[in-house]
Amino acid sequence: MTAAPRDILMVLGIPAVLIAPDNRIFAVNAAAEKLLGKNIEGRHFITALRQPSLLDSIEQTQSDGTRRETRYLTNDGQHDITYRVTCGPVPMQGKQGTLVSFEDITPMEQAGQMRRDFVANVSHELRTPLTALLGFIETLQGPARNDANAQDRFLSIMASEAERMNRLVSDLLSLSRVEAEERVRPVDPVDLGAVMQQTRHSLAQLASEAGIELDVYVPDSPVIVPGDADQIRQVLTNLVENAIKYSGRGSFVRLSLGVPDYETRLRGSGVRIEVTDTGQGIDVVHLPRLTERFYRVDSHRSRELGGTGLGLAIVKHIVNRHRGRLLVESQTGKGTTFTVILPMEREED
Ligand code: ADP
Prior knowledge:
The protein has helices at 5-11, 30-36, 45-49, 52-64, 106-141, 148-181, 192-209, 229-247, 299-304, 311-321; strands at 16-19, 25-28, 68-75, 80-92, 95-104, 188-191, 213-217, 224-227, 252-257, 261-263, 268-277, 325-331, 335-343. By secondary structure, it is an alpha+beta fold. Strand 3 (68-75) and strand 4 (80-92) form a beta hairpin. Helix 6 (148-181) packs parallel to helix 10 (311-321), helix 7 (192-209) runs parallel beside helix 8 (229-247) and helix 8 (229-247) packs antiparallel against helix 10. The protein is elongated and about 85 Å long. The site of adenosine-5'-diphosphate (ADP) has 21 residues, from helix 8 and helix 10.
């Protein structure tokens, strides 16, 4: 007993098309109909498949019986989709037909693109201070060789450029550590009020130098969550530092902790930590992209203030590791609130 080709193709989850020796489409499965349109059975493959590189591959496989791969690009109305298409010879009707199958490799392509973008971004971020350093070294070896005043000035600029590179490398290392651990949920009991007071302590000087009033509100009774105290401190430090950096003189920054409550977003009980500032705010168009690596609303201002563009990406990964949520609300001219919701229980992942 032999199965009908269509029945065999139907079992496959991926789009597949069988082309007969006479170049007509002999059978297609449901996934292929969805991709290429209905009623293509019986038509010459050229009229149904259209993309030149795919047509070339099918023609070659039809004539030389060799298996080959190509790409098929399409769009589902919202996103570009890339298929890896395999054309393989199939004995048919005493001659040879071609089986064409389509594998969606969009996520792989996207991951590759993200990796390339990341490397390009890191190289660019490092190159700027490095170029400055090389320029100053040349000047110190040449024209400024005997100019003590210029030497002092240049050395202090060089120190701040080297410091920028140092910050970037530390942030990259933090990010890669947090990403590596993201699947392992931290479980140590963390006293959030204590971590918040430590954060206030370590940033008090930065706030007063920036002319900003920094207040902390915590409930009377301790709030303990399962977590990693160092990482939660890093989240709070990054958020409060941003609030101080981007708000401007005379603003208020408030770090507050709510009492544990049912959180719909967690479908369980959780606790909210809010970092609110009365600064310039962030235009709503930027909000969805803020936690992307190297995304800045105003690159010049961020660099001037010593930003690496990685702070919120680190925050996002740490919050994910704690199975929490990060929310941002902002109104231009009025201020911004970042909210971190952390779960109270160590429920099963
Ligand atoms: P950066 O190192 O540039 O501060 P972040 O990832 O911490 O990088 O933040 C990304 C961008 O988000 C910043 O460049 C800034 O434009 C914007 N931003 C973050 N926090 C605030 C805030 N509290 N008020 C205004 N803008 C902010």
